[in-house]
Amino acid sequence: MEKSIERVVPLFRPNQQIESEPEVPVGLPPTAAPRTLSHAAAKAIDLSNQPKVWFLIGAGGSGKTMLARWLGWQMANAGRAALLAALGPQNRSLAGWFEGVQQPETSDGIRTTRWLRDLLIFLTEQKHSSVLDFGGGDTALAKLIEDAPDLADVLMAGGVTPVACYLIGPRIDDLASLASFEAADFQPRATLLLLNEGRVDSALSREEAFARVLQHSALRAARKRGAVLIWMPRLEPEVAQEIEGKRLSFGQARDGQVPAGQSFAPITGLKRSMVRRWLDRMDQAFAPVTSWLP
Questions:
Q1: Helix (H, G, I), strand (E, B), or coil: what is residue 195?
Q2: pTM
């Protein structure tokens, strides 16, 4: 009897060619037939002086909370204000970084969906900008989109511009939310595809690590309709962990400061330089969508 052979993807293959490999399907079946994709150029959209709602979407550990912290720090430095909300069923650590972070009283999916609906109604009535961190689970958003597939249009009609920000690592599965929401017709004009270099093994180039993600039809279709692709620069893990452990703002880490009432040693020397360089690179990366920032 002929022995069957299981096909595997080798861990290392010099000069690998991925164009001929079968694409891995991601996401969930659409709940309704999607509309014809719009090919409007998202880069041309100017959202200056408009209230924005940022939807931070992605798998656990993809960098959503770190991005939310950077956005909050940017807003504080610029004297702007926006409502911050943590909706993740398992991770709501954003509330540990800022005062007044809004969050549901429960992790129950149905109640969180209702809370999200009421929050969006409040934001449209008050014309407030907001950053919504969905943690590692976007079930509340998925349910709301299922119930109201024209969510993006409803927000626009209410005077608030939705910004869908997908945090994507080098795993194909990180495209699942993008594929599912786009298929379900959640296609805001302002859509950001944020490829997180921090999720890449330092021995690989970002292009090598993200090769399959960049060629996947889900990402290519979103880019074709006008989604903007940005590389989120890497901050060395040990530096990021020290900042998190000491509960420092990025500005405090960059400037070697310590929060009032704390006695631990500030970040110094080369680590401060790394933070400064990372912040500069973040400014450069987000320069094309500066008007999208809350």
A1: strand
A2: 0.85
